[in-house]
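> forwarded from #structure-qc
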């Protein structure tokens, strides 16, 4: 069933519902407009190809389902709540591939995953997971300021901490602080910062602490031992908002591409991006795993005026290049 028929069915149902149905339709319209703005603006009526913004707006009268890298209390959860202010069912998953699987299996409307940190760089295993999927698209981005917090059991003190747990990024971002204040403490990598906080709460060991978001302390009944343990206050993380449907051209100022080629071909691709009227803004490389010198790249390019279908179609003609989505970026203030 296409989107037009689905809309007609829902509109008919709302009309039959009387006053309650009218209220629901108004709410759906307002929230659809909000999501449309988040997806890149509503300068033109969406065509059938604009599935990402449309599909989400049809569920807004009910409740969006957002899969994300959990558990509860992660920065990824905060990013999901910031991008989707409407009522939403948050579905925490243990891994990024599991969150993306929710999209492909129809269990979630969107997924939110970390992509890059200003201190730790690209989260390479999550980048690899995105590159491995052919039917998942980037439709939005959130940039969060990151304030890492050291937390432990109530009554614990810095002097007795011998083990610090966190996500790899949390350990990297707090490395200088830990070397100065906890030189004897070992570091242990966990699946997420919130998983580290949960582990501390479950162990009941006052010598174990976690580096996590401040909200994780409240969620898991821990005590904040030190605030702002990251290397710099400029610490920020980018999160991708993913969908199983691609946003149509003209609804974003940024586009992300995947390229698989030898390194000497990359210059030509960058020139093509520039000649299409886009400016390259980020570039990450990952080994293709096929031969020496063969790499997979993620390239992001932007046009502040909005990326057109003509620009995207020109770049899609390059055999090495695959468009992963067109989107806008939202920044949360400190």
């Amino acid at each position: 069933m296409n989107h037009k028929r689905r809309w007609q069915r829902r509109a008919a149902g709302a009309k039959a519902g009387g006053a309650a149905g009218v209220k629901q339709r108004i709410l759906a319209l307002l929230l659809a407009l909000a999501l449309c703005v988040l997806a890149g603006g509503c300068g033109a009526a969406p065509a059938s190809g604009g599935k990402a913004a449309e599909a989400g707006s049809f569920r807004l009268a009910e409740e969006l389902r957002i899969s994300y890298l959990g558990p509860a209390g992660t920065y990824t959860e905060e990013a999901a709540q910031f991008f989707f202010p409407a009522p939403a069912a948050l579905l925490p998953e243990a891994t990024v591939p599991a969150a993306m699987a929710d999209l492909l299996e129809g269990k979630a409307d969107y997924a939110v995953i970390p992509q890059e940190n200003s201190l730790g760089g690209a989260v390479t295993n999550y980048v690899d997971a995105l590159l491995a999927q052919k039917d998942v698209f980037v439709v939005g981005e959130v940039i969060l300021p990151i304030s890492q917090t050291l937390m432990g059991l109530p009554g614990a003190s810095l002097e007795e901490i011998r083990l610090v747990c966190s996500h790899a990024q949390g350990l990297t971002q707090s490395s200088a602080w830990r070397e100065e204040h906890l030189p004897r403490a070992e570091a242990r990598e966990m699946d997420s910062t919130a998983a580290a906080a949960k582990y501390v709460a479950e162990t009941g060991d006052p010598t174990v602490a976690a580096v996590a978001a401040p909200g994780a302390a409240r969620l898991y009944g821990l005590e904040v031992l030190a605030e702002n343990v990251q290397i710099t206050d400029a610490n920020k993380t980018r999160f991708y908002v993913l969908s199983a449907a691609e946003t149509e051209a003209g609804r974003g100022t940024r586009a992300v591409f995947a390229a698989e080629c030898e390194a000497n071909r990359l210059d030509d691709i960058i020139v093509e991006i520039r000649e299409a009227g886009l400016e390259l803004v980020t570039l990450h490389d990952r080994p293709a795993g096929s031969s020496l010198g063969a790499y997979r790249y993620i390239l992001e390019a932007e046009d502040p005026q909005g990326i057109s279908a003509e620009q995207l179609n020109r770049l899609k003609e390059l055999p090495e290049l695959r468009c992963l989505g067109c989107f806008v970026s939202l920044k949360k203030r400190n």
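QC bot note: The two ends are 44 Å apart (CA to CA). Confidence is low (pLDDT under 50) at residues 1-61.
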